[in-house]
Amino acid sequence: MQRVPRPALLCGRDYLQHTWEKAYQDHRRKIQDAQPLVDTSAPLSFSHLHLKFKKLKLEEERLAVIDRDNRLLLERLSCIMRTMGQAESRKSHTQKRTVLKKEGKEEAEVISGRCQPVREPQEEPQLEQSSQA
C-alpha cells in the first residue's frame, strides 16, 4: 500500500475532530484546576451561645453549699475527736453562764461604786405657809 500524501490543510472531518479534542483537553485541564465552591469548613462557634452562665452560677452555688456543709461536719467531727466521743452536757454551758453572770455582777458593783457622784445632803426648800385661815 502506498502512502497517500496528506494535504497541508486538514479536511473538514479531521479539523472538527482536532477542535473537539482540543476543547475536551481544555475541559479536562479546567476540571483538574477547579477549586471547590462549597465551604465545607465548620461554622463559626460563639462562646456565649455554648456557655450556659445560668447553669454555671447554679453549679457554683451548689458547690458553695456543699463546702459549707462539709466544713460544719468537719467541725462536729473534730469536736467529737477532742471530747473522745463524749457528748457535751448542758451543765457545762450553764456553769459558764453563771460564772459570767457572777463576774458581771461583781464588775457592775465595782463600776457603780466608782461612778457614784458624791452628793451633799441638801435641804429641801420648805414652802412658806401663810396663816390666813
TrEMBL record:
InterPro entries named among the record's database cross-references: CFAP97D1/2, Hmw/CFAP97
Position of the signal peptide: none
Pfam family membership, one: Hmw_CFAP97
Region (Disordered): 85-133
Transmembrane segments: none
Family the UniProt entry places it in: Belongs to the CFAP97 family.
Protein name (Swiss-Prot/TrEMBL): (raccoon dog) hypothetical protein
Species annotation: Nyctereutes procyonoides (Raccoon dog)
